[in-house]
Specification:
- Chain A: InterPro entries: 4Fe4S_Fe-S-bd (IPR017896), 4Fe4S_Fe_S_CS (IPR017900).
- Chain A: GO terms for molecular function: iron-sulfur cluster binding; metal ion binding.
- Chain A: It comes from candidate division WOR-3 bacterium.
- Chain A: Keywords: Iron, Iron-sulfur, Metal-binding.
- The complex is a heterodimer of chains A (325) and B (273).
- Chain A is an alpha/beta fold and 325 residues long.
- Chain A is built from twelve helices and ten strands.
- In chain A, the strands form two sheets. Chain A has a seven-stranded mixed beta sheet, with helices on both faces.
- By secondary structure, chain B is α/β, with parallel strands linked by helices.
- In chain B, 49% of the residues are buried.
- Chain B is built from six helices and 14 strands.
- Chain B is globular, with a radius of gyration of 18 Å.
- Chain B folds into two domains: 10-95, Beta Barrel (Elongation Factor Tu (Ef-tu), domain 3); 101-230, Nucleotide-binding domain of ferredoxin-NADP reductase (FNR) module (Rossmann fold, 3-Layer(aba) Sandwich), CATH 3.40.50.
- Chain B is 17% helix and 29% strand.
- Chain B has helices spanning 75-81, 118-129, 156-160, 207-220, 252-255, 261-264, and strands spanning 10-19, 24-29, 41-46, 50-54, 67-71, 88-95, 108-114, 137-144, 165-171, 199-204, 227-230, 246-247, 250-251, 258-260.
- The termini of chain B are far apart.
- Classes of the chains: A alpha/beta (325), B alpha/beta (273).
- The interface between A and B is large, with 54 and 42 residues.
- The complex binds flavin-adenine dinucleotide (FAD), iron/sulfur cluster (2 copies) and FE2/S2 (inorganic) cluster.
- Residues 49-50, 86-88, 124, 127, 131, 133, 140, 305-307 of chain A line the site of one iron/sulfur cluster.
Chain lengths: 325, 273
């Protein structure tokens, strides 16, 4: 672990950007989002909560060209560095690893993107009202899943190696200085404060033992939904997709596009039968998928508590009011 | 890239198209681009139109060709019906789990099919007949809407000759040529002459048929774990990633497409919808 002053971090990012594409969070009004490094570092955004869009866009983009026929697709994926992902997005990568990176069939595009992506995560000193990572047993700081981690302090950052390549990176660079006792203590306190704040925000919330069965409960919860599906597209743990073929000069190209389980046609089979013909059944299915089915396979929820689905919802549907009570 | 691209189909060509019924045809490929076991399925691409999942209907042990029996219902299947011998197709697979045929040794096998659901069952039947000595007896109960809608009319006479194979067919609505029973397939399930303690049932057909047949089989005495059902779900990737085929905790493409009744009988979602 090393300590970097703000200007030392700025210098490091400048150096990295000389040879690699670097993304980091910038604040515009209330929104924080990733942009290509523009010569400045927005320290306030780095210490804020997760950006509006997640790492999903880097690893599993809205559309990806995955096959061509009759010739095999070839493409090269550039090396990228993303500075600023929070625990809730690093957990999203853990979920995607279970889906795309494991088992008999693996997604070579996801794996290649992941290999080329160097992640520098950052602690969340001040969680927002929409945050609930604590309810899904996560901490607002990262100990695994990224390459390096930054803890913002008043006068700079503590930088920790997280992965093997992060460790090698840190050792090769000889950055900053040995952290002082005071800095270590400041981190401990900052993390404690952040956790306390999350507990305060989500006070009294208890996980339901089971999702309710009665339709009345669900009808009440989905009230006001305009079926924009932003909750699904913004979600760092949603992974549904569709393979879509388009005619090419010779043969066709196959594109993997994001899909959403709320679409009426999502589960419809040939001939028109539909196992989830009404929105009520599709709405329920999303929660069963994330909190029951994914868990049966992988022992954890497909939700990281990032709060994007509730922040972006025009009907203010809050997942915490459904899965917790 | 380090791992194999699972989204790329292999090219293959159409050799022959056999008209089975006005809406069902058998598509014979000019080679066997992929190996499969009975019960597994493939994703078939009509270039430029799209993909759809189908279970091969030919004998998995046939080293030379692969056949698919397909009903025209929508976009991809309609495009398939436009193709001619020599046309290019794409195929990837095999996906899903095969029927656990080895575990059926010494048993009676009770097969029930409806409509185009006979396609995967033909592949299973041919695989079973290749080692018919392993089984005590094989029953086939098949139902179609009308005599015209019966698939493999050309093959039934040959199958009727097999001693260990007991076949009964029915049609919902008969005509002047029809001598057999009439009524939905459950009418030929009133008598199930097996020893339920040493039998398995295999069912494939439209969801509504699947439902009533399952109810009947359970009532007759088959244990839930001995009833094998082909679940038709919307599928895109076929490899347990896209989530389209999900039925409760299962990815039907990966854990199925054949699931036993005990796996799905207590799900929150109606498995037959
Ligand atoms: C494991 C399995 C085995 C099967 N075996 C057989 C078989 O042996 N024989 C047989 O006849 N049938 C079989 N089926 C059914 C067969 O897959 C369907 O009939 C087929 O998918 C219908 O495709 P279609 O495009 O013609 O129908 P459509 O009704 O046009 O489409 C079917 C579904 O595909 C989706 N879709 C439509 N357009 C698009 C698009 N542009 N891009 C992406 N998705 C789209 C929609 O969700 C639609 O509901 C099997 C199904 C499964 C799951
Ligand atoms: S369900 Fe909502 S809170 Fe959970 S990961 Fe998805 S967007 Fe974030
Ligand atoms: S949910 Fe947790 S990890 Fe995510 S931004 Fe909020 S505090 Fe940080
Ligand atoms: S078809 Fe994609 S997960 Fe089953």
């Amino acid at each position: 672990m090393r300590f970097l002053s703000r200007s030392q971090l700025e210098q490091l990012i400048r150096r990295l950007a000389e040879t690699k594409t670097v993304y980091l969070p910038y604040r515009t009004g209330e929104r924080i989002n990733y942009h290509r490094y523009d010569g400045n570092v927005d320290h306030d955004a780095l210490a804020g909560i997760r950006p509006t869009s997640s790492l999903k866009n880097f690893l599993f983009p809205p559309s990806e060209f995955v096959a061509s026929f009759p010739k095999e697709v070839r493409k090269s994926i550039p090396e990228q560095i993303v500075i600023g992902p929070k625990q809730c997005d690093i957990y999203g990568v853990w979920v995607y690893d279970r889906i795309f990176g494991q088992g008999e069939f693996q997604d070579p595009f996801y794996l290649e993107r992941k290999k080329q992506l160097f992640l520098i995560s950052v602690d969340c000193p001040t969680p927002a009202e929409s945050c609930f990572c604590n309810l899904v047993d996560l901490t607002p700081w990262v100990e695994a899943g990224s390459d390096l981690n930054l803890t913002p302090l008043d006068d700079g950052y503590l930088i920790d190696p997280v992965s093997k390549r992060g460790k090698e990176f840190l050792e090769s660079k000889g950055l900053g200085s040995e952290p002082t006792e005071g800095q270590l203590k400041a981190r401990e306190e900052s993390r404690k404060r952040a956790m306390a704040r999350l507990e305060e925000i989500n006070r009294g919330k208890r996980l339901r033992e089971q999702l309710p069965d009665d339709d009345e409960f669900w009808m009440e919860k989905l009230d006001g939904c305009v079926e924009c599906f932003s909750c699904l597209f913004a979600c760092p743990t949603c992974y549904c997709f569709l393979l879509y073929d388009v005619k090419a000069k010779k043969g066709f190209d196959r594109i993997r596009v994001w899909d959403a389980c709320y679409y009426a046609a999502y589960a419809r089979v040939g001939g028109g039968m539909n196992p989830r013909p009404d929105f009520l059944s599709r709405f329920k299915n999303r929660f069963h998928c994330k909190f029951e089915y994914f868990k049966q396979y992988h022992d954890r929820f497909a939700c990281s508590g990032c709060g994007r689905c509730l922040k972006g919802c025009s009907a203010n549907i809050d997942i915490r009011e459904i899965v917790w009570q | 890239m380090a791992v194999k691209n699972p989204y790329t189909p292999l090219p293959c060509r159409l050799k022959e198209v056999i008209e089975e019924t006005p809406t069902i045809r058998t598509f014979v490929l000019d080679s066997k681009p992929i190996d499969f076991e009975a019960g597994q399925f493939v994703e078939l691409t009509v270039p430029g139109v799209g993909e759809a999942p189908f279970t091969p209907s030919s004998n998995p042990n046939d080293p030379e060709k692969l056949e698919l029996t397909i009903m025209k219902v929508g976009r991809v299947t309609s495009a398939l019906f436009e193709l001619k011998p020599g046309d290019l197709l794409g195929i990837r697979g095999p996906y899903g789990k095969p029927y656990p045929i080895d575990s059926w040794k010494g048993k009676e096998i009770f097969i029930v099919g409806g409509g185009v659901g006979m396609a995967p069952l033909r592949s299973l039947l041919l695989a079973l007949l290749d080692r018919v000595r392993d089984f005590k007896r094989i029953y086939l109960r098949y139902g179609a809407r009308t005599p015209k809608d019966i698939v493999y009319k050309r093959l039934f006479p040959e199958w009727e000759k097999v001693k260990k194979l007991d076949i009964v067919q029915t049609v919902d609505v008969g005509d002047e040529t029809w001598k057999g029973p009439t009524g939905v397939v459950t009418v030929i399930l009133e008598e199930i002459p097996v020893n339920f303690k040493n039998s398995v049932a295999v069912v494939c057909g439209p969801p509504i048929m699947l439902k009533f047949v399952t109810m009947r089989l359970v009532e007759a005495g088959f244990a839930p774990e001995t009833i094998y059902l082909s679940m038709e779900k919307n599928m895109s990737c076929g490899i347990g990633k896209c989530n389209h085929c999900r039925l409760g905790p299962y990815y039907v493409c990966k854990d199925g497409p054949v699931l036993t009744w005990d796996m799905i009988k207590d799900l929150k979602e109606d498995p037959f919808l």
